[in-house]
Structures are given as C-alpha cells and as structure tokens.
Design a protein that fits this description.
- By secondary structure, this protein is mainly α.
- It folds into two domains: 65 residues, no CATH class; 223 residues, MetI-like (MetI-like fold), CATH 1.10.3720.
- The protein is built from 16 helices and no strands.
- The relative contact order is 0.13.
Length: 370
C-alpha cells in the first residue's frame, strides 16, 4: 500500500503542473487584465458591479489623473483605452502586476512561489492572498462541511429504506419528492425562504446576513452555538434542496445491485436476519461507490456550489471571493484559489481511495495500477 500511496503522491505534481499551465495559457489569451482594469478606472470606463475593489491601486489612480496626455508610445497602444495616458504610468502598472516579464518567467516564478505556499498579495486589495483566503474560509467550511454531513446522514438511510422497499408506495413517493427537489434551483428556493422566513413578506424568524450576530462576543458558549446554527439554517436548506437526489438514488441502486447477488441469498439461507444481511454484508460492499463520490461531493459543496447562496444570504465566502477575483482580474487570488483547491481535491481523492481498505479489507492496493 505504501508504494501505491507514494505513486499517487508523485502523480499530484504533474497533475498540478498541468492544471496551472492550462489555466495560465488560457488567461494569457483572455481579453482584459489587471492593467486594463486600472486603465478603465482611470479613464472612467469601469462600470462593473464589483468596481469597489480597487484599493490596491488607489495611489496609482490619483497619480494617473495628472499624467494623462497625448502619446504615441508603443506601450500605450498595447492596452485598449490607454491612449492619452503617460507611458511611464503604464510601465509602472506592468511592473506592479509583474507583466514587465515574459510569460514563461511569470509562470515559473508563480510555480516556485506556490511550491513554498507564497501566494503574494491581492492586486486590488491591500492584503496577502493567503490571509484573504483564510478570512473567507470559515464561511465556505461551514456551508460545505455541514451540507455534506447532513446530505449523507439523510441520503444514506433513505436510500437503504428505498432499496428494501423497492417498488412500494414509500419508494414511489420519496422518489417523486427527491426528483422535484433536485429540479428546483437552489437560488430560487433561497429567495422563497427569504420571502417566507427572513422578513421578506411573511415571517421574520431568521437572520439574513453573516454567520453570527453583532453581539456574538457577548453570548455564552451555548448561545454562540445556537446563534451559529440559527444563521446557517436557511443557507443550508437552500443548498440541500437538490443535494439529496444523487446520493439517495446512488445508495438505493448500489444496495439493489448487491441484494440481488448470490452471496446475499446464501447468507439468508444460513439463517441470518435481514438486518445482519443488510448491514453485515450488503452495506460494506454497497458503500464503496458512495465513498468514491465523497470527494467530489465535499469539494463541490465546499467552494463551487455556494456562489449564488453566498451572494443571496450575504455570506462572504470563497465562492463569492473567487467570482469577484475573476471579474476584477485579480489573478493573484484566482490562481491561488485554483492551486489550493486543486491540491485539496487531489489529496481528498487519495484519502477516499485509502478509505476503501477500511470499508473492505479485501482491496489490495499493492497490486493496483494508478
């Protein structure tokens, strides 16, 4: 097993390199960039919804107002809207964002820095990127962790019950409810929850902003726990409306496949009870598919599936941070997010594979090809 783990760990390196290289090349051909963004702000052409995040270049903006003038310098012609700005100002912008170096040098420097977990500073926020990510991470951890746990705690027992009662009225009705819930967009359900329970039109039972109340520091330990889950209730309901379908139906189908196998009939003929058959034999084999899907479910809920929910409920997490970084061309934040979560996804996938052995010791990693 150690040899398998070593091969998987070594495989992470070229995988990360490939992800970063492809993303870096795509960015080079994407229109716009941090230099163009500052130029748009200087010339009054920046009308984006996230234009408020420009603190990192504030001094440059005021300086540029006094440096505008006619110029035919080639460096100004490289950027749309730069005509009339002082070429020296453009050069300072390129140096500030690192665009005064060739693309391959920027890429190699980024890899060297990221290998040491040095992510630099945000282009448009006066803060280190790692500090910015750590600042937003509690929100995404709260949403992703609790959503994944709740989803599995509900979906697995429900899927087992549906498999045991396959074709019954219970199975039909629960399938109908699960499919309808899966078809409802999470953001639409979030708006409905706000209207009904967050002071929109009817009831005002739940808060609408943040993970904690303003008087958080004054609350007792039990009060803090209650306040924390009070703020999480509506976002988790909105995320969970469609989170149960896949896991529930996968659990049901996995159990049905195992129940129909010959070893189950043999166990029943030996006189084992139905619970002994289900949870002593079938459960261990059927859960392998669910374990394989856990990393994707966790990572998806952790940072990629919560953008709209974070926006609607004013939760300043990693999903919203990543979206704003892309819109604002804050490449330092974009690539740091990509690197961290790609690495996290690969490590979690390895942990998931290793958990196979815990569920079913018959799996031999020594003879398995990567």
């Amino acid at each position: 097993m150690l040899a398998y783990v070593a091969r998987r760990l070594l495989l992470i390196i070229p995988t990360i390199l490939g992800i970063m290289l492809i993303s870096f090349v795509i960015i080079q051909f994407a229109p716009g960039g941090p230099v163009e963004r500052v130029i748009a702000q200087v010339t009054g052409q920046d009308t984006s919804a996230t234009a408020r995040f420009s603190g990192g270049s504030g001094s440059d903006l005021s300086q540029a107002q006094t440096q505008r003038g006619a110029s035919n310098d080639p460096i100004s012609s490289k950027y749309r809207g730069a005509q009339g700005l002082d070429p020296e100002f453009i050069r300072q912008l390129e140096q500030q964002f690192g665009f005064d170096k060739p693309a391959h040098e920027r890429f190699l420097k980024m890899l060297w820095d990221y290998a040491r977990f040095d992510f630099g500073r945000s282009y448009f926020r006066d803060i280190d990127v790692i500090d910015l990510i750590l600042e937003k991470m509690p929100v995404s951890i709260s949403l992703g962790l609790w959503m994944t746990l709740i989803s599995y705690l509900i979906s697995v027992p429900l899927g087992v019950a549906k498999a045991v009662r396959d074709g019954s009225r219970f199975d039909v009705w629960t399938s109908t409810v699960v499919v309808i819930g899966y078809a409802i967009p999470g953001f639409l359900f979030a708006i409905l929850l706000i209207v009904l329970f967050a002071g929109g039109t009817f009831l005002d039972w739940f808060p609408l902003r943040g993970l904690t109340s303003d008087n958080w520091d004054q609350l007792s330990l039990w009060g803090k726990i209650v306040d924390y889950f009070w703020h999480l209730t509506l976002p988790l309901l909105a995320l969970g409306i469609s989170a149960f379908a896949t896991t529930t139906l996968l659990t049901k189908n996995s159990f049905l496949d195992e129940i129909r196998k010959q070893y189950v009939q043999t166990a029943r003929m030996k006189g084992l009870t139905e619970n002994q058959v289900l949870y002593g034999h079938v459960f261990r084999n059927a859960m392998l598919l669910l374990i394989a899907g856990f990393p994707g479910a966790f990572i998806g809920a952790f940072f990629s599936g919560s953008l709209l929910i974070e926006t609607i409920f004013s939760l300043d997490g990693l999903g919203l941070l990543g979206f704003e970084a892309i819109v604002n061309r804050d490449y330092a934040v974009v690539f740091a997010n990509l690197y961290i979560f790609s690495l996290l996804g690969l490590v979690v996938a390895l942990i998931s594979d290793l958990s196979y052995m815990w569920v079913d010791p018959r799996i031999d990693f020594e003879t398995r090809e990567v």
